[in-house]
Amino acid sequence: MGKTALIIKREYFSRVKKKSFIIMTIVGPLLMAAMFMGAVWLSLSQDEKQKVLIVDELQLFSSLASSSNVSFEHTILDLDSVKSTFHKSDYSAILYLPENILHSNSAILFFKKQPGFIAQKYIESKVEGKIEDLKLIGSKIDKEAYGKIKTHIHLSNISFKEIGKEEHSSQESGFIGLIFAIMIYMFIFLYGVQVMRGVIEEKTSRIIEVIISSVKPFQLMLGKIIGVAFVGLTQFLLWVILTASIVSVAQAFLLKDHQGAENMVHPAQMTSQLLKDNQNQPKAQLDSNEVLALIERINFPYMLGMFLFFFLGGYLLYSAMFAAIGAAVDSESDTQQFMMPVTIPLIFGFIVAQLSLQNPEGPAAVWFSIIPFTSPVVMMVRVAIVPFEALSWQLLLSMVLLILGFLATTWIAAKIYRIGILMYGKKTSYKELWKWITYKG
Predict the structure, then answer these.
(1) Which ranges constitute the DSSP H helices of 139-216?
(2) Of 226 and 250, more confident
(3) CA distance 383 to 399
(4) CA 409-415-421 angle, 5° bins
């Protein structure tokens, strides 16, 4: 273990001192924060005012109120006439309200350039409100009385146990799990490939022959895998801290102009709207308080604990195979034939993880969250959605199998590594790998 610890220390410090590590540790959060803030800022930014021409076949929508970013003008011309001159006019959009709009509840927005999310929602809300008013008048219902009895229902999903314990369960929280799953998927590829490249570099430079004279191949492989894992965790923690700090500062400065705008959609409301759209649940209405309640319900210590376990488990399992591939080839270009069997399960797990958002307790989600090659990605989504009581035995089985899977793949990878690391100038085939695995000596 002493020699393995030395290799871990060497791998860790040799990598964290590299300029590429320092640059990526700093640039990574800047890029992520810039992408995140850029997307939010562009979504909220309404510098381009929308001038909307209304073609109203019923002539009932002339009273739609304009805002600072969306102005309405009414015309008595028909749609074909307006369309013929639209691109020569200064109007940015045509709002077509057909004759049957009170029955179809459908309108059409023609535009030159796609309006922003907030502008679309503003137009939609104004038309919706006017239709509602017209229907109330047609039904001779007092608007004030209607407002008092109008009700929105939000269905809360609570898992009720035989022992009387209750736990919230919601598919919205699965998006948090999916974010963790995507990070695991990315980190396994990113750092697994680093292990493979490190082995190839040492093999081609013949340094490996000197190292092997002092340590066993298995100790070298294990030390390299664990050392790179610590590098990955260090970089991940620094990215989280730096990205959160940069986003907080950027929010304070870049988005301050949007605070208090009369027609602004709060980011939490926008998030809830996006969640609603993604799930095709037009009746669902999550306000900002419900979004905050959703975030509060998520057990982040539990989620972070599961993330660390499945990240390390998945990384160790796949890195052993990446190390074996690196030992079996002479150059990176020769790795393609061996990469596909390793990467396909991981890609398939990523696809199943997305499907698990809709059916987290379906057979596909259950089985692929237990199989070690896909469990690091799929289980993170289920952990976020399914209450612990319902998931406990499957979670335990998944964790045990992941550990056993890591030990099994490491044993196989060590067999390949032991022989392949000193093999030069020969194209390795699957038949050759099998001989190395079954070789006794």
Answers:
(1) 143-149, 174-204, 207-212
(2) 226
(3) 12
(4) 115
Task: Determine contact, residues 33/245, Cβ cutoff 8 Å.
Answer: no
- CB under 8 Å to 56, separation ≥6 — which residues? 62, 74, 97
User: Is residue 86's pLDDT more than 80?
Assistant: yes
Scan for tokens 């030990």, then name that residue: 407
**Would the pLDDT of 396 be above 90?**
yes
Show Cβ contacts of residue 126 under 8 Å, excluding neighbours closer than 6 positions: 64, 65, 72
Cα–Cα dist 7/337, whole Å: 29
Pairing label, strands 158-160, 166-168: antiparallel
Q: Quick one: how far is CA 431 from the chain centroid?
A: 39
The residues near 240 (Cβ < 8 Å, ≥ 6 apart) are none
Least confident of 42-46, 120-124, 319-323: 42-46
End-to-end CA distance of the chain: 22
pLDDT > 90 in the chain, percent? 11
- In angstroms and rounded to an integer, the radius of gyration of the C-alpha atoms of the chain is 29
Helices 174-204/217-254 angle, 10° precision: 130
Q: Closest Cα to residue 79, out of 50, 46, 108?
A: 108
Residue type present at position 5: A
Split at pLDDT 50, 70, 90, the class of 43 is: low
Please tell me the least confidently modeled range out of 364-373, 381-390, 400-409.
381-390
User: b/e map of 330-355 (b: 16 or more CB within 10 Å)?
Assistant: beeeebeebeeebbebbebbbebbee
What is the model's pLDDT at position 361? Answer: 83
